[in-house]
Amino acid sequence: MPGLLVLTAGPGAFLSPPMKPSDLLRADHRRIETHLDSLLRALKRLNAVQVAGIHQSFQEIQRIALGHFQMEEDVFYPALRSLAPDLLAKMDQEHGHVRETEQCLDQLLSSFPETPSERNLVELFRLGIEFHDAVQCHIVDEEDNLLKYADSKIPEDQQQRLLAEMQKIRSHNAT
Ligand SMILES: [Fe+2]
Ligand SMILES: [Fe+2]
């Protein structure tokens, strides 16, 4: 009888494992990547018509990355810094590079002419690709190295504390 089988398995057998702070960060990465893909598609067929879409994708990435960096830099990274100082120094460096490329693209887009010249478009392509690559490389590096490391090294009770602090930042930013 199938119903009996479900009962004998016990309720715990159907519960998914508790959410970890790294799950929250991975979920943000997937959202950021959706906009990175749109950004890249528009850059690959760049002309004056694509500029508004590029600006929109860029602003979406900026918006998500702002709270995301705050959760990482204020809560997640400090919890791991003494355990893996070299890895954390690399993450800091990558955040610095993302911010530099973000600033350059922001500056260019904020004063981008309505009728761009060929030179304007070439510059937009160059800075857009640079920003895209900086963000995408950091996401891959962070997931392959830092998040896996954190999942295996941070004890469960600390994982839950970090998650709660990060969710607090998330809900504060949402208001
Ligand atoms: Fe991240
Ligand atoms: Fe990061």
Q: Which stretches of 5+ consecutive residues score pLDDT under 50?
A: 1-6
- CATH architecture descriptor: Up-down Bundle
What string, H for helix and E for strand, traces the elements in order? HHHHHH
Amino-to-carboxy terminus distance: 50 Å
Written overview of the protein:
The chain has 175 residues and is mainly α. It has a single domain, classed as Up-down Bundle (Four Helix Bundle (Hemerythrin (Met), subunit A)). It has helices at 2-9, 21-44, 51-80, 85-110, 118-153, 156-174. The termini are far apart. Bound molecules: fe (ii) ion (2 copies). Residues 25, 29, 68, 72, 142 line the site of one fe (ii) ion (FE2).
List keywords for this structure.
binds fe (ii) ion; Four Helix Bundle (Hemerythrin (Met), subunit A); 175 residues
SSE layout:
Blueprint: H1 2-9, H2 21-44, H3 51-80, H4 85-110, H5 118-153, H6 156-174
Helix pairs in contact: 2-3, 2-5, 3-4, 3-6, 4-5
One fe (ii) ion is lined by residues 25, 29, 68, 72, 142.
